[in-house]
Inverse folding.
């Protein structure tokens, strides 16, 4: 996380006493008193608010009723919700509402470097969710000698190959050599966004919704994929428009590469989402979070919130109920680790009869589907991420050892919309992938 970023924790409540105690607004409350916050100009500022547990909330400018001008946010098990705000200029103000079912939380945001009693900088620490588990630090001997299955069973991330990926191994060893917080699963069924299989845009190598690298092979060629990256910070928004970007790794899902066989392909994927809503000419709100998804049988899950710039590692694999990697397993497994915050999330989702093909592995930047996703997909405008890089990108074949993206990938995908190139990709062997933003739509 950038040294200029600050985490804001601001419980909202029905009165000042409730505000100070951090208790949620009672269910009977309709509108909480307006609260004001000072936002440093030209800095991505996370704002924490406490609503109701597992609340689905819509953030929008006060007085705006157009649902396309809402940013959907989901509270965690204890009611905490988070979004980022940035303003281009000092002394600018904007009023926004956070609508969470029957409760409305009005906010006055002012850009400035000097907080006041009426416009304070909120608290900076978000409580660790109940049910979190702290894994003890491993000794260097245990870290090197424990089997992959033992590491998975204990909850630690997979151990990289020290010879093939020395940098990744060094980062992993540093992570497991200190206490690691395992967040409890937090599943959210999202109706507002969906990540879809790749759709060709009329020209070989050009897709309407994906850009990136893909490894292709016969059935059951691949069973695990990984990469790490810094969560892309969105440089600017588009006036009056909500923009989207999904950065992920996955298995299968390219309908153009599907071998003869099942009529529909699975897509087992996980990554980070970077969505931005321009609130005014100077203010923008952003939502950065980690997610997992299995297409077609599982809606997206919100895993946990992130900060732009956080160093994350994402692992996706097919395995058995215990988490062991197994190409014949009945589960999609996901691990998302935030090295910056020292947190990790581990989850699994049953394939539920969806056939795992294993013929593709991907490293992708996607523009997210926002409506009619199962019939005539409507894609959101692509967030202005400018430059993003995946590192230590690798795939595990069903036979043999891990391969870097440079050795395994054989297809390069560009995202286009008509004549406009939205996102380009530049391979950087042996294991890095560079993405470059081109246009919103």
């Amino acid at each position: 996380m950038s040294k200029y970023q600050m985490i804001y924790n601001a419980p909202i409540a029905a009165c000042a006493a409730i505000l100070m105690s951090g208790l949620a607004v009672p269910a009977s409350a309709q509108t909480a008193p307006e609260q004001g916050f000072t936002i440093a100009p030209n800095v991505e500022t996370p704002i924490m608010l406490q609503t109701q547990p597992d609340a689905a909330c819509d953030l929008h400018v006060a007085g705006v009723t157009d649902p396309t001008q809402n940013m959907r946010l989901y509270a965690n098990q204890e009611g905490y919700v988070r979004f980022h705000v940035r303003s281009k200029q000092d002394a600018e103000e904007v009023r926004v509402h956070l609508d969470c079912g029957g409760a409305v939380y009005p906010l006055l945001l002012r850009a400035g470097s000097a907080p006041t009693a009426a416009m304070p900088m909120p608290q900076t620490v978000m409580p660790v969710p109940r049910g979190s588990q702290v894994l003890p630090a491993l000794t260097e001997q245990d870290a090197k000698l424990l089997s992959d299955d033992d590491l998975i069973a204990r909850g630690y991330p997979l151990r990289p190959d020290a010879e093939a990926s020395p940098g990744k191994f060094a980062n992993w060893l540093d992570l497991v050599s200190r206490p690691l917080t395992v967040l409890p699963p937090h599943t959210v069924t999202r109706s507002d966004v969906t990540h879809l299989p790749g759709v060709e845009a009329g020209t070989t190598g050009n897709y309407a919704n994906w850009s990136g690298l893909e490894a292709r092979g016969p059935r059951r060629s691949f069973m695990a994929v990984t990469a790490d990256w810094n969560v892309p910070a969105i440089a600017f928004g588009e006036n009056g428009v909500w923009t989207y970007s999904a950065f992920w790794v996955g298995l299968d899902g390219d309908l153009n590469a599907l071998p003869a066989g099942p009529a529909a392909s699975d897509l087992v994927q996980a990554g980070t989402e970077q969505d931005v809503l321009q609130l005014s000419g100077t203010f923008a709100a952003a939502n950065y979070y980690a997610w997992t998804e299995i297409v077609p049988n599982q809606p997206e899950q919100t895993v946990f919130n992130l900060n732009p710039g956080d160093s994350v590692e994402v692992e996706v694999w097919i395995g058995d109920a215990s988490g062991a990697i197994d190409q014949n397993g009945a589960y999609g497994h996901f691990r998302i680790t935030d090295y910056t915050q020292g947190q990790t999330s581990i989850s699994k989702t049953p394939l539920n009869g969806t056939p795992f093909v294993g013929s593709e592995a991907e490293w992708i930047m996607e523009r997210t589907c926002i409506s009619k996703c199962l019939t005539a997909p409507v894609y959101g405008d692509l967030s202005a991420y400018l430059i993003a890089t995946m590192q230590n990108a690798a795939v595990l074949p069903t036979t043999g050892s891990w391969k870097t993206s440079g050795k395994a990938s054989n297809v390069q995908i560009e995202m286009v919309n008509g004549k406009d190139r939205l996102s380009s990709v530049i391979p950087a062997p042996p294991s890095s992938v560079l993405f470059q933003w081109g246009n919103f739509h």
The chain is about 10% helix and 45% strand. The two ends are 29 Å apart (CA to CA). Residues 1-29 have pLDDT under 50 and may be disordered.
